[in-house]
Each structure stands twice: as structure tokens, then as C-alpha cells.
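On clarity, I found the account of how folds are encoded harder to follow than it need be. What matters is that the chain and its backbone geometry are given together, residue for residue. For the editor and my fellow referees, an illustration may be useful. For illustration, here is how one protein appears when written out as sequence plus C-alpha cells:

___
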Amino acid sequence: AIRRQRQMCIRDRTCTTAHFLAIMECLTEESVESVKGAKRVSTFKGKPLKTDINGIMYGELLQLMEIKTISEEFIKPMQIVEGLTEEEVLKADVSVTAGYRNWIIDEVKRVSKMFEALGETMSYSSEEIAAGVTSLNFGTFGIVDSYAKRMGIIDHDYVLQCVPWVVIYQCMKMDNEVVAYQRRLQKLIYKKK
């Protein structure tokens, strides 16, 4: 029965996401690769899909970054970003979810590079390095905690659920620029003495 379903899926070039995930292990490498090349569609069920992930909350971005399995790659992005149910995603044609999956992978890489670049823009003095400044990386919690403190927010979950990642990124970028300015100013003041 699976062999017949696989042949139908390949022959017709259409099948649901649920069907595809159920028979994926039986598919040829060529069939799986063709799905990996799928492009994101602009609408789903008559509604426009997002064109970027700049409006999602920081917690949603983290959920996308934590996707681990192949089935999650096909299901979670449309749930997280578009607010669809698992049932709606599983009923969708695999070309739709595969294209969305591929697009989300690229978007998450783009955003990850932006955050990584923030860390790379900071330069430290030999004294700061000797004191251990490079070991002060508190990860996701540190980012959430820093933003919460900055804004006087007590509930860290509020930051995850209600603050767009772009806002947190911009605050971190501004903080880095202010620190860089303060360092330059201190050097100028020190040189005058």
C-alpha cells in the first residue's frame, strides 16, 4: 500500500504534508530533493502569507530556532508564523509546506547572522579580556533579562510572548553603539590627561 501511495505522490506531484511525512522514509532521494527545492507560495487558502519574519515575537523566533526533526520542519513554521493549526498544515499540499519550510530556514539563518554580527562588532581591551569579558555570554536568558531590565518589565515571559525580535535586536544594537562611543570617549579623555 505504501509503495502505491509513493508512486501516486511522485506521479501526481501532489500529496498532503501528512501523506508525505508518513511515506517520506520510503521515497527516493530524488523525490525528497525535489521537495527541498520548493519555493514559498504567497498565499494559502486565499490569505496572504508573511513576506518576512520581522514581525514575530522573540519567543516565536526561539521556537523556530529550536526545531529539530524533519516533521517539525514541515509543520511548526506555519503554525508559529502564520497561526495555523497542525491539522491545517498536515492537510496542506506538501509543495506549500516544503516551500514555507525552505523559506523559514533561510529567514532564521538571516536573523541568526544579524545577532551574531552584533557580538562581532564589540572589541575589547586587553584588560577586559584578561578580566573575562568574553565569558559573559548568558545566552537567550541573558538577552531576555537584559531587555526586561531595560524596560522595567518584571515578567520575562512577557518579553518572549509580546516583544518582536526586531525590537530586542535594535536595543542590543543601540547598546553596542553606546558602549563603543563611551569607550572612544574614555580614550580621548585619557589621552588629554
Remarks:
- The two ends are 84 Å apart (CA to CA).
